[in-house]
């Protein structure tokens, strides 16, 4: 096309020179040869060469302009594929590249609108993913992150929103990567429960990997991670609770069954032994009753407990509690010093307050030294009031103090072994304090004594 064009132009230039030549011959009434003599052949040749030169220069300039345009088109197309926004190229309608220019501009408009749609859709998916309460990461077939949500960052305790990064350098958890790789290898969905040691805590994660075929060899792998640490802990606690309860129930029941059988098999005939065995059966049945009551209290706490406020004369409540443990106090030669101001009245739920106070006083007697003291004090603070039960007993290590509010926890001391208890008392106390929107603290020193502090909101009569 281009050669023919140059050739045409050369023919046109040559023809122009020949026409001038023959026109001169005609006007001068001479033959062509004579006219050539007149015009001097050299000039004609020079004219022809000049025309050719001008044509080549024009051709060169045109070619350079077209080259520049082609470079511009290439750059445009590159920019378009890289999602850069650029303006259209303007091409002269007469130019041979006009159609190409129009096509490039069209491709550019189409691609830009496709990218716009794609980004809008991607933002939509991401928006949806942000509301899904599990960690999600979509990985492309080159193992690069396609998208991931913030919930995953929270679970993994670091930023994972690194699009186009290799997923395993961002995730870097061996067992999770192994599960994802299994999906890449088998093209099958995978599921696993994985324990990971993260900077802040050890977590149990439910990992689901889904293979998503798109077309031909094109596919995505979607990783979904759910943090089930808390759920697993609750399950473990429930299992522990059931096995602890069964264990605790078994001891008195076995004892009652064993001694009744002994009585039945003849021990009734021996009044001394019979009395002893009946005492044991009676005591064990009391223990069973306490245990069942504790378990019932615990099960009630979970179900929206009702709180009934009444005016309570706290000093009186302390005296009543001390009286209830009179024989135990005598046995251990422990005295209770009631230092609560006699006129102090508080608005509280009497039943729950009594339960909390009795349990603390009972422990203070149980875990006291023979001849020890228990001091109960109370005072009002700004918007709150507090009472303290202090003893001069065996005390606790800081590790034991950290665990005493757990269900069934009993410190492994010789005193605990002597005392019949289930380890549920303080667990219930804590739950009751929380039901009353209060707080309980313990402060103890081994062999010196223990102080429990209960802080409760100060409720005026009108609010109760
Ligand atoms: P119960 O369910 O009958 O109350 P318990 O007294 O063993 O049994 P908690 O009241 O929950 O259970 O107490 C848990 C443990 O905390 C006790 O076994 C004891 O080891 C320790 N403890 C509680 N109070 C004191 C205290 N005042 N001094 C020393 N240790 C205490
Ligand atoms: Mg107790």
TrEMBL record:
Enzyme Commission number(s): 2.7.13.3
Keyword rRNA-binding applies: no
Catalysed reaction, written as an equation: ATP + protein L-histidine = ADP + protein N-phospho-L-histidine
Keyword Membrane in record: yes
Pfam families: HATPase_c (PF02518), HisKA (PF00512)
Top-tier EC class: transferase
Keywords, alphabetical: Kinase, Membrane, Phosphoprotein, Transferase, Transmembrane, Transmembrane helix, Two-component regulatory system
Histidine kinase domain residues: 244-460
Membrane-spanning segments: 41-61
Compartments (UniProt record): Membrane
Superkingdom classification of source: Bacteria
An example molecular function term from Gene Ontology annotations: kinase activity
Protein name according to UniProt: histidine kinase
């Amino acid at each position: 096309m281009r050669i023919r064009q140059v050739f045409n132009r050369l023919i046109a230039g040559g023809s122009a020179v020949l026409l001038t030549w023959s026109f001169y011959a005609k006007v001068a009434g001479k033959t062509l040869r004579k006219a050539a003599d007149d015009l001097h052949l050299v000039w004609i040749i020079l004219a022809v060469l000049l025309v050719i030169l001008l044509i080549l220069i024009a051709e060169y300039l045109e070619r350079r302009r077209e080259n520049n345009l082609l470079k511009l088109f290439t750059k445009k197309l590159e920019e378009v594929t890289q999602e850069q926004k650029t303006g259209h190229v303007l091409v002269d309608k007469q130019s041979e590249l006009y159609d190409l220019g129009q096509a490039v501009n069209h491709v550019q408009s189409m691609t830009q609108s496709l990218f716009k749609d794609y980004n809008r859709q991607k933002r939509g998916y991401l928006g949806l993913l942000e509301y899904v309460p599990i960690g999600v990461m979509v990985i492309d077939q080159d193992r690069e992150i396609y998208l991931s949500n913030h919930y995953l960052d929270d679970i993994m305790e670091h930023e994972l929103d690194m699009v186009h990064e290799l997923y395993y350098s961002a995730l870097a958890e061996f067992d999770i990567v192994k599960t994802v790789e299994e999906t890449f290898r088998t093209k099958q969905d995978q599921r696993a429960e994985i324990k990971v040691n993260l900077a802040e805590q050890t977590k149990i994660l439910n990992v689901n990997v889904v293979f998503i075929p798109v077309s031909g060899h094109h596919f995505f792998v979607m990783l979904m991670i759910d943090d089930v640490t808390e759920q697993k802990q609750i399950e473990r606690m429930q299992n522990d609770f059931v096995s602890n309860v069964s264990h605790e129930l078994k001891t008195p029941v076995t004892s009652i069954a064993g001694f009744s059988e002994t009585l039945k098999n003849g021990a009734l005939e021996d009044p001394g032994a019979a009395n002893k065995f009946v005492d044991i059966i009676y005591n064990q049945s009391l223990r069973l009753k306490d245990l069942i009551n504790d378990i019932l209290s615990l099960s009630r706490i979970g179900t929206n407990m009702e709180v009934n406020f009444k005016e309570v004369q706290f000093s009186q409540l302390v005296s009543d509690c001390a009286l209830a443990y009179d024989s135990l106090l005598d046995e251990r030669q422990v005295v209770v010093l009631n230092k609560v101001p006699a006129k102090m009245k508080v608005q509280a739920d009497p039943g729950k307050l009594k339960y909390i106070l009795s349990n603390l006083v009972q422990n203070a007697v149980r875990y006291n030294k023979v001849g020890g003291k228990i001091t109960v004090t109370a005072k009002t603070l700004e918007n709150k009031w507090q009472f303290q039960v202090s003893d001069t007993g065996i005390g606790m290590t800081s590790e034991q103090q950290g665990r005493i509010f757990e269900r069934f926890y009993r410190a492994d001391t010789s005193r605990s072994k002597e005392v019949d208890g289930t380890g549920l008392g303080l667990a219930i106390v804590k739950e009751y304090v929380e039901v009353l929107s209060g707080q309980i603290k313990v402060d103890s020193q081994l062999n010196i004594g223990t102080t429990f502090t209960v802080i409760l909101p100060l409720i005026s009569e009108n609010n109760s």
